[in-house]
Design goal:
With 125 residues, the chain is mainly α. 77% of the residues lie in helices and 0% in strands. The chain contains four helices and no strands. The longest helix has 34 residues, at 91-124. It starts with 14 loop residues before the first helix and ends with a helix. Keywords: Iron, Metal-binding. Residues 13-117 form the Hemerythrin-like domain. This is Hemerythrin-like domain-containing protein. InterPro entries: Hemerythrin, Hemerythrin-like, Hemerythrin-like_sf, Hemerythrin_metal-bd. Pfam families: Hemerythrin.
Length: 125
């Protein structure tokens, strides 16, 4: 069974992260079920939200001189590059790409974002 949406186990204990991540997970879930007519607009909104969330995380990493900033940024960049390269006329390919974003997002939360949250909670800011 595929994992969709948000669940409490995904929380990192940093309210701003958790709120943003919950909204992104829910947005991805809604987009996966969107009609073709609504998909492109929803995809653009998802990309904009991801860019904003990633930018916020990266600013925090810079502030604390986070040692894994390069690797974390690369993960963000790869996802955004993949989404920006989608052909807007190919809705099926776009929907397939969005199906891949959610498992990536779950894994990213469990690894890279968890490590960042621990660094922030340790008083690095």
């Amino acid at each position: 069974m595929e994992e969709r949406g948000w669940n409490p186990d995904m929380a990192l204990g940093i309210p701003l992260f958790d709120e943003a991540h919950q909204a992104l997970a829910e947005q991805i879930d809604v987009l996966m079920d969107a009609s073709d007519a609504d998909f492109l607009q929803g995809l653009q909104q998802l990309i904009e939200c991801l860019e904003e969330d990633f930018r916020h995380e990266e600013e925090l990493m810079e502030t604390i001189n986070y040692p894994a900033i390069r690797q974390h940024r690369e993960q963000h960049a790869r996802v955004l590059a993949s989404l920006h390269q989608l052909d807007e006329t190919d809705i099926a390919a776009g929907k397939e790409a969005v199906k891949l974003v959610l498992p990536w997002f779950h894994a990213h939360l469990a690894t890279a974002d968890t490590a960042l949250a621990r660094a922030l909670q340790a008083g690095a800011v």
